[in-house]
Specification:
The complex is a heterodimer of chains A (174) and B (748).
Chain A: E1 15-20, E2 23-28, H1 35-42, E3 61-64, E4 67-70, E5 83-85, H2 94-106, H3 115-128, H4 134-140, H5 152-171
Parallel strand pairs in A: 1-5
Antiparallel strand pairs in A: 1-2, 3-4, 3-5
Helix pairs in contact in A: 2-3, 2-5
Chain B: H1 16-20, E1 36-42, E2 48-55, E3 65-67, E4 92-93, E5 99-105, H2 108-117, E6 118-124, H3 131-136, E7 147-155, H4 158-162, E8 168-176, E9 188-194, E10 198-203, H5 208-219, E11 226-230, H6 243-258, E12 262-265, H7 268-274, E13 281-289, E14 295-307, H8 313-323, E15 332-341, H9 355-373, H10 377-382, H11 404-415, H12 417-429, E16 434-447, H13 453-457, E17 460-465, E18 471-474, H14 484-496, E19 503-505, H15 524-545, H16 556-570, E20 573-578, E21 587-588, E22 593-594, E23 599-612, E24 617-628, H17 635-654, E25 660-661, E26 664-665, E27 684-688, H18 705-708, H19 710-722, H20 733-747
Parallel strand pairs in B: 1-12, 10-11, 14-15, 18-19, 24-27
Antiparallel strand pairs in B: 1-5, 2-4, 2-6, 3-5, 7-15, 8-13, 9-10, 9-12, 13-14, 16-23, 17-18, 17-20, 21-22, 23-24, 25-26
Classes of the chains: A alpha+beta (174), B alpha+beta (748).
Bound molecules: FE2/S2 (inorganic) cluster (2 copies).
């Protein structure tokens, strides 16, 4: 079975251009289309998930110009010219790969539906505060719902990834 | 015999790397060429006669595929225990959000517009939402008395025991609310229909062969012309046990009429409003206890709200009944259990399946008994715990060398029970707005289907070797996050001697995998895992018999080499294992007596809470979960099951409230039905004590166990913190505020 075919672009819609995971992208979409739908249906980036469609679950989290957002709440017209990062691009970043590997090792992903969004939220923390303690980590993840794990192993994964990154920083490894 | 030592190790989740890279295709990530989007028109009222359906303006109706009851290829029935539930309401609706009509269009937005433009002419009929009104028969909505099922259990002489002079009699009523599974991936299916090949559905589901049976019955086609494929599934917790059959049937009949594939994905609101939830319950408990804490008699009345159709309520009721007396010795027992019909949407499977409800009641009650007697709640349990040679309330002989003191002692030690309780009591006595408390629950959970259920299921698992020397596991057990793929690979590797990297666990697809039964009832590792092991071992035996493998060899490549040689010489080799009941196991369904479950896991959970008296908010600060669950195949995955279950239990106890109005869910969103976040859950400390039956002990199911203990432990802790006796969940701040106010008035 193939992934979704492109919905035929309605020529009436203006082009919106932006950068996704480092590569230029352009879509013809209604300006108020949700970024979530554009990523999934137009660009076939299905790693970004929909759990609620109203900004509560965080499964649709992506970065827009370095800021963590719920893509179900962002109209595509707002991202013209922006740099967007999704889960599909995460492993290209060595420091974030550390986080992904910790999730696998520690059992931070069960059913996996919350995992891309959860990793995005964790990535936002990793980039600003490698000294975060458990309470800070939990607060950073509070916008992302997981129904499987009870969060224990997700938090553990972030704790372990941060420790690894601190050690690498101290040792001068990139 | 070879033992690769994979079982018992925290082998990494097989699909972990794909999950952290967003690479797996869940149902909403899939599309088929020419696919339409299907939607469901539902009833806005609980009970009504359908007088007419009309199609409003603003919709290109000639482009919309419309399916009503007359378009179904076979009986208009959801095939479960009974045949009372229609796939599409015909003539009468019996609950809110019951499906009435199906629509499909290539453009999802048009399909949605069409749904909104359907005008239903409904003549309201009397409905019933209150359990007592339904029991009284004020309005009869099912059968002649609204009684789906009743079970009775009795031994000893309860009435005589209750009137003995030296016993303390205590009565209480305990209530639990509905709970939404709230898997983060809503339900969905894609169906194809081909007049020659039949029906193919893919979807988010727990039980491929349940969906298969439903479609066979509906399309009246031979089984081989119905194919059900599980897509990667984003959580289930029971919520994807029975309802997926309905969505699959709906999508399939639309596909048949349209002649094109149809995708049906529920959004969150529709999923919460229309699909099943945990049964609400009410339990009245009366006990006779000696002053030293010895339990003498239990008289218990357990009632669950089944909703408008029978669905799985009888089996939920059965599990709740069997667990209602707890893991204690009761010389005299009388249990009465009823599943009642109301006009709510049908309640259904949710982790624990009736047991969390009755365990909540008995554990809260025993806490109140302890308070009356002035005995420590842990000590009261200890004096009455089952021992080897005792019988449960339904007469099952405990043959396992259980050491429940060990389980209790570990939980008390890890929570520093005695000192912490004393310290909190002293601190609380000093006044102040923050009160702290420690509460305990002790419980057991039977794994696998109840009674003769596993015999009737007659599960089968296959294994085979490929030309490349790989071992393939073929079973219908689904990976829904709990780790099925990884655990089956560990078991198969150990049993066959193949390296774990040489095992493939095939994605459930009824065209290829045999019927291993449903992925429910904590049965996957214990029941199906055992079959996977037997079939894998049989492969090894065949390779040895063929002279291709030295049975003493444990070189990890020896199996693969032998397998390649075998296939080259003789062709494919496949083995199968079928369920055989453990010896000497007998269940008397009529009298509700005997060996209810093949195995029980045993647990003691301790919750530590802070209550803010000003806001009546409860925080769970610490949680200790100690259990014996036989041999643990994968400690990380097993602990993950416990932690996830505990978090759901915390939600059920103090966060998650389904608000009903006239039988309709009024808070069907994640913004107003609140599940715990990372800041609402504590560090959950999990321990598995060594198996009672020794290191070679078999596995026991653990998926549901952790749902039973948190709610009673948390309410006990709140009671300890505040000097009250909360008896109902969910207990949100507004409920606790009322309890605190009442206790202040009472104290005056
Ligand atoms: S789908 Fe965007 S927050 Fe839930
Ligand atoms: S892993 Fe399933 S929702 Fe988080």
């Amino acid at each position: 079975m193939a992934h979704a075919e492109s919905v035929a672009p309605a020529p009436a819609h203006p082009e919106v251009a932006f950068v996704v995971n480092g590569a230029p992208a352009a879509v013809h979409a209604h300006p108020m289309s949700r970024l979530l739908d554009v990523l999934r249906e137009d660009l076939h980036l299905f790693g970004t998930k929909e759990g609620c469609g109203e900004g509560e679950c965080g499964a649709c989290s992506v970065f827009v110009d370095g800021v963590l957002v719920n893509s179900c709440l962002v109209p595509v017209c707002q991202v013209a010219g922006a740099r967007i990062e999704t889960i599909e691009g995460m492993s290209a970043h060595p420091r974030l790969r550390v986080l992904q590997e910790a999730f696998v090792r520690d059992g931070g992903a069960q059913c996996g539906i919350c995992t891309p969004g959860m990793l995005m939220a964790a990535a936002a923390l990793v980039q600003v505060d490698t000294d975060a303690d458990e309470a800070t980590i939990r607060t950073a993840l509070a916008g992302n719902l997981c129904r499987c794990t009870g969060y224990v192993r997700i938090v553990d994964a972030v704790v372990h990834a941060l420790a690894e990154l601190r050690a690498a920083d101290a040792g001068g490894t990139p | 015999m070879h033992d690769g030592g994979w079982v018992g190790r925290s082998v990494q989740r097989r699909e972990g790397s794909d999950k952290v890279n967003g690479k797996l295709a869940y149902i909403d990530d899939l599309s088929l060429p020419g696919m339409l989007h299907g939607v469901t028109v539902r009833s806005p009222v609980a009970r009504a006669r359908i007088r007419g359906i009309s199609f409003g303006p603003g919709v290109p109706w000639e482009e919309v595929v419309v399916v009503g009851p007359a378009d179904l290829p076979g009986p208009n029935v959801v095939k479960l225990i009974d045949v009372d539930q229609p796939l599409l309401a015909d003539g009468e609706v019996r609950h809110c959000d019951e499906p009435i009509l199906l629509l499909a269009h290539a453009d999802k937005a048009v399909a949605e517009r069409a749904r909104a433009a359907v005008v239903l002419d409904l003549e309201p009929l009397p409905a019933v939402f209150d359990l007592d009104a339904a029991i009284r028969g004020d309005v009869v909505v099912w059968g002649k008395d609204n009684l789906f099922r009743e079970y009775r259990v009795a031994h000893g002489d309860v009435d005589a025991a209750l009137s003995e002079p030296d016993v303390i009699v205590l009565e209480g009523t305990y209530e639990t609310g509905a709970q939404e599974q709230m898997y983060i991936e809503p339900q969905g299916m894609i169906a194809e229909f081909d007049p020659e090949h039949g029906v193919t559905v893919r979807g988010s589901l727990q039980c491929p062969y349940y969906v298969h049976a439903a479609l066979v019955a509906l399309f009246e086609l031979p089984p081989e012309r119905i194919r059900v494929i599980q897509a990667t599934t984003g959580g289930g917790f029971g919520g994807k046990e029975e309802y997926p059959s309905i969505i699959a049937a709906h999508a399939a009949v639309l596909a048949r009429k349209a002649g094109r594939p149809v995708k049906m994905i529920y959004d969150r609101v529709e999923d919460v409003m229309a699909t099943t939830k945990r049964h609400p319950s009410r339990t009245v408990v009366r006990t006779a206890v000696r002053p030293d804490g010895t339990l003498v008699a239990l008289d218990l009345d357990f009632v669950i709200d089944g909703g408008a159709y029978l669905t799985l309520s009888p089996v939920v009721l059965s599990r709740g009944t069997i667990h209602a007396a707890g893991p204690y010795r009761w010389p005299h027992v009388r249990l009465r259990a009823r599943a009642i019909a109301t006009s709510h949407p049908p309640h259904g499977a949710f982790r624990g399946f009736g047991a969390p409800q009755s365990v909540f009641a008995i554990e809260r009650h025993l806490d109140r008994v302890a308070t009356r007697l002035g005995i420590d709640p842990a000590e009261l349990r200890r004096r009455n715990l089952l021992r080897q040679g005792d019988r449960t309330a339904v007469g099952q002989l405990i043959t396992e060398p259980v050491d429940l003191d060990l389980v209790l002692d570990r939980a008390l030690a890890m929570s520093n029970w005695t000192e912490t309780r004393a310290r909190f009591e002293a601190e609380n006595g000093a006044g102040g707005p923050l009160r702290r408390g420690l509460g305990l629950a002790f419980f057991y959970h039977g794994a696998g289907f109840t009674g003769a259920g596993e015999v009737h299921l007659a599960s089968v698992a296959h294994t085979e070797i490929t030309a490349e020397g790989r071992l393939r596991v073929l079973a219908a057990s689904t990976e829904i996050g709990q780790g099925t793929n990884t655990i089956f690979a560990q078991i198969a590797a150990d049993a066959s001697g193949v390296a774990i990297e040489g095992v493939d666990v095939v994605q459930p697809d009824t065209e290829f995998v045999p019927n291993s039964g449903p992925t429910v009832a904590s049965r996957t590792t214990m029941v199906v895992g055992r079959l996977v092991g037997e079939a894998s071992r049989a492969l090894r035996v065949r390779l040895v018999e063929a002279g291709l493998l030295d049975d003493r060899s444990d070189a990890s490549d020896a199996f693969a080499a032998a397998a390649r040689a075998y296939v080259a010489r003789h062709g494919v080799l496949r083995t199968q294992a079928s369920y055989r009941p453990p010896e000497g196991i007998a269940w008397d369904e009529k009298n509700f007596q005997g060996d209810a479950y093949a195995a029980y896991a045993w647990a003691a959970y301790v919750a530590e809470v802070t209550v803010d008296l000003r806001s009546a908010e409860v925080r769970v600060d610490d949680f200790v979960a100690v259990q014996e669950a036989g041999r643990i195949v994968n400690p990380t995955l097993a602990a993950g099951q416990i932690e996830g279950g505990v978090a759901q239990g915390i939600g059920w106890a103090i966060y998650e409230r389904v608000v009903w109005k006239d039988g309709r869910v009024r808070n069907p969103q994640m913004t107003n039905y609140i599940i715990p976040t990372a800041v609402d859950t504590p560090r959950i400390r999990v321990e598995f004590v060594p198996p009672f039956a020794g290191d070679a002990a078999p596995c026991k199911g653990i998926g549901e166990l952790p749902m039973d203990g948190p709610a009673p432990a948390i309410l006990a802790a709140v009671g300890h913190a505040t000097g009250t006796e909360p008896v109902a969940i969910p207990m949100l701040p507004e409920q606790l505020l009322t309890i605190l106010e009442e206790s202040r008035h009472g104290a005056r």
